[in-house]
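Fill in residues.
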């Protein structure tokens, strides 16, 4: 399968009235620090607080009536879970969401608010898959993979269309990488419109399967992810890896300290809430890992859902 610009444009038309066209923000302060012009695509202000609303809405819209009446099921650490629950609610069909027991409670609560049935499981990918399979067998619901699904990938790519419409003369785009659904859609859209724009994936050093896989030419699973960026702990899928190999110029890895630094800078300077996974792309510029002086860089802020009672820079209160 090759994801096409036509697929992404069709998804944009399909979901336009059901998702936000999110703003692009700039900051003279952050530009000066980077020595570049930075353009932040604020998907933290998207429906359900993350870009995942795009892919899930497109996937559910493409179900036949016969498929839809059986409902949908997925496994997710949070944002795709809420996105699919919302998309199912908009279509009036059941949603069954398998979530690891270690998910932030704010994300679990968000899924339940949309009326989905939540099934908690052990925090391993194998447990997530086996529980989702059991739900499919029990209910007949249609499985919507959180990233390794062409419908989802095309939906995620719609944010790149918006970004290039608002800032057509970018030189680079930095995109977080977890399972690869977002960067698949984003890179396919960008390279189809302007192959001269460089697309870089950014992921935590503690979950660097994309960097390892791209270097090795084959998928190297992330078996024991260790990162604060809980939304980026997934392993690449076969479809997403093919798109990464086809379109992505490189993968940058960032430390936990760089992620927290980036997250805090965005909160303090842009005055918007981003979760650790959402701040990862800007983290690549914190210590100058990419040579961007003088360039025009799009940075995708993927989400803003997190537990405000346990921010990474907070310390326990002392007596």
């Amino acid at each position: 399968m090759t994801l096409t610009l036509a697929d992404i444009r069709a998804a944009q038309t399909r979901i336009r009235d059901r998702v936000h066209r999110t703003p692009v923000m700039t900051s003279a302060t952050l530009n000066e620090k980077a020595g570049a012009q930075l353009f932040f695509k604020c998907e933290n202000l998207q429906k359900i607080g993350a870009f995942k609303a795009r892919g899930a809405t497109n996937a559910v819209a493409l179900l036949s009536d016969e498929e839809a009446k059986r409902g949908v099921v997925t496994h997710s650490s949070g944002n795709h879970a809420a996105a699919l629950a919302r998309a199912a609610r908009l279509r009036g069909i059941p949603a069954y969401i398998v979530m690891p027991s270690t998910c932030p409670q704010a994300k679990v609560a968000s899924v339940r608010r949309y009326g989905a049935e939540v099934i908690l499981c052990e925090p391993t990918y194998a447990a997530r898959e086996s529980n989702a399979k059991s739900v499919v067998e029990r209910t007949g619901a249609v499985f919507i993979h959180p990233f390794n699904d062409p419908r989802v990938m095309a939906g995620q790519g719609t944010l790149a269309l918006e970004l290039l419409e608002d800032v057509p003369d970018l030189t680079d785009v930095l995109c977080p990488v977890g399972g690869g659904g977002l960067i698949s859609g984003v890179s396919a859209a960008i390279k189809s419109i302007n192959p001269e724009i460089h697309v870089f994936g950014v992921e935590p050093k503690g979950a660097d399967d994309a960097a390892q896989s791209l270097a090795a030419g084959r998928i190297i699973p992330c078996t024991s992810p260790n990162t604060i960026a809980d939304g980026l702990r997934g392993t690449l899928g076969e479809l997403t890896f093919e798109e990464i190999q086809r379109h992505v110029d490189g993968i940058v890895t960032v430390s936990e300290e760089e992620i927290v630094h980036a997250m805090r800078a965005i909160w303090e300077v842009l005055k918007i809430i981003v979760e650790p996974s959402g701040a990862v792309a800007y983290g690549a510029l914190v210590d100058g890992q990419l040579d961007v002086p003088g360039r025009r860089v799009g940075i995708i802020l993927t989400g803003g859902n997190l537990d405000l009672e346990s921010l990474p820079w907070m310390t326990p209160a002392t007596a």
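The first strand starts at residue 24 and ends at 25.
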